[in-house]
Amino acid sequence: MTTAQGARARARQEVTAAIKEAARRQLAAEGAAKLSLRAVARELGMVSSALYRYFPSRDDLLTALIIDAYDSVGEAAERARDAVADAPPPARWIAVCEAVRDWALAHPHEYALIYGSPVPGYSAPETTVPAAARVGMVFIGIVRDAHEGPGLSGLSLPADLRPEGARMVADFAADVPPEAAVALVAAWAQLFGLIGFELFGQFNRVVEDRETFFRHAAGRLAEGVGLGRG
Amino acid sequence: MTTAQGARARARQEVTAAIKEAARRQLAAEGAAKLSLRAVARELGMVSSALYRYFPSRDDLLTALIIDAYDSVGEAAERARDAVADAPPPARWIAVCEAVRDWALAHPHEYALIYGSPVPGYSAPETTVPAAARVGMVFIGIVRDAHEGPGLSGLSLPADLRPEGARMVADFAADVPPEAAVALVAAWAQLFGLIGFELFGQFNRVVEDRETFFRHAAGRLAEGVGLGRG
DNA sequence: CAAAAAAGAGAGCACCGCTCTTGCTTCGGA
DNA sequence: TCCGAAGCAAGAGCGGTGCTCTCTTTTTTG
Questions:
Q1: At residue B27, what are phi and psi to the nearest 5 degrees?
Q2: Any atom of strand C under 7 A from CB of A15?
Q3: Binary contact (B117, A190; C-beta < 8 A)
Q4: A176-to-A46, A173, A180 alpha-carbon distances in Å
């Protein structure tokens, strides 16, 4: 299908990849705000208008980078999960949390791009949704495994939240009980609150030993989703 | 001092205020990325270069707006705190959390400006620090009051975090025990994770009843800082 | 082989932040 | 009171941006 086409099609893929690579380099160096189509073209030795044959607008280029960033952090989370597959659930949870944090510290501009404020006018195209879900799936998987295994502990859902619990979380977490799904989504958001605050300088004169602090907070998050004490 | 100066000084203050107001309107309408010095000048009927007499650069204008935004959300939190001054600590905590969330939903671009990714090359000037601390003080106050009153419940700090606890959190929270300070900072960051995810669309196909979900999560945050169950 | 599709190059438009120079108005000290 | 200094608005201009349009060349396809 996509292979063994004309040399022109392969050239197109190569140019597209080169554009993304140069753009990614600029993004990592200067941030999304400074990413310039003209500068990318300059770096590749072409004229700016030629770039529009590959990406119809700057935002489309940015969208491609967003998807790549989601995939990158998702892959980092999956690698961490697989590396500690035999550890007890709380340890696995914490390991994945730390992997996400490490990825964020290593790729601050990419992190800002996907979990910070939407950059241009905003808009998150539908195409980013599956990539965005990848990290979440890792956390869901850990909780689901714990649920099927030794079970979850210490979770409860107040009465007024009961009827909401089911339809609060989409069907992707249908195989975990509603109280766990609710706690999971909250923990998921809170994890990125911790990472974002550290990354964007909100902890600057507040938290000294951020590594220790984060591990402690991640452990409490694990408790919060019923994984027990690590 | 600042009053009864020459008419020129007052005129300067008025023009400065008008610039900030127009800029704030643009920010609220289009977001920080679209905020243009030239458009602000156009709206005020002056030429763009004249604006540089009042703000030496676009980033300085943005910094002024950042400080205002911090003050605005801080004031909203303080108002909520004062409105429920006689309620038990968990209820006060939740009320302030909801006030911050309401403010964020009402001022999404301002929220993105201060708690989203740093906009330009970045840089958070020192002048923003006191304004930024204002919201945090409200939360600290609630926990401190609870500590002096019926006391905190259910908090513990693992042994390996003990020595960190004291120097992890700056002196502004010196009058709460270290385990509470650690939990407080974590809850603070996590609160903004919840709000940010909702605001920036991360909950789009995930959380349905966000109001109920948030109140539930805020309640668990209150438990996490030792305020007990609301 | 000729028509069609794709790709690159260049000029140009409207916008941006920012600087510099030029006049005009207001203020403060001799 | 007057006059120089300081503050202020205006305009032109520089280099940068995203994006569109036209034109030419190259490659694919019927």
A1: -60, -45
A2: yes
A3: no
A4: 52, 6, 6
The b/e string for A159-182 (b: 16+ C-beta within 10 A; e otherwise) is: eebeebbeebbbeebeebbbbbbb
Q: Give the chain B residue whose CA is nearest to the CA of A229.
A: B158
Residues 6+ apart with CB under 8 A from B74: B131, B134, B135, B137, B138
Q: What's the mean per-residue pLDDT of chain B?
A: 87
CATH class of B1-56: mainly alpha
Percent of chain B with pLDDT over 70: 83
- Cβ proximity of A25 and A42 under 8 Å: no
Q: What is the pLDDT of residues B179-195, one digit of tens each?
A: 888 999 999 999 999 99
pLDDT at B146 over 60: yes
Give the CA-to-C1' distance from A3 to D27 in angstroms. 18
A&B contacts, CB < 8 Å? 157
- The gap from C-alpha B207 to its chain's centroid, in whole angstroms, comes to 24
3-state helix, strand, coil in chain B (%, to 5): 70, 0, 30
B123's tokens: 């840089």
Amino acid of residue A217: A
Whole-angstrom Cα distance, residue A135 to residue A188? 9
Across the interface, of B30, B112, B206, the residue whose CB is closest to A169 is B206
Q: How far is B17 from chain A (nearest CA, A)?
A: 26
Superfamily of domain B58-224, CATH level 4 = Tetracycline Repressor, domain 2 (1.10.357.10)
Sign of dihedral through CA atoms B95, B96, B99, B104? negative
Nucleotide nearest to B51 (CA to C1'): D9
Counting every residue, how long is chain A?
A: 230
| Fold of the domain spanning A66-224 | Tetracycline Repressor; domain 2 (1.10.357)
Q: Is the CB of A38 under 7 A from strand D?
A: yes
pLDDT(B166) > 90: no
Which sequence spans correspond to the domains of chain B?
1-56, 58-224
Please, which pLDDT band fits residue A173 given cuts at 50, 70 and 90? low
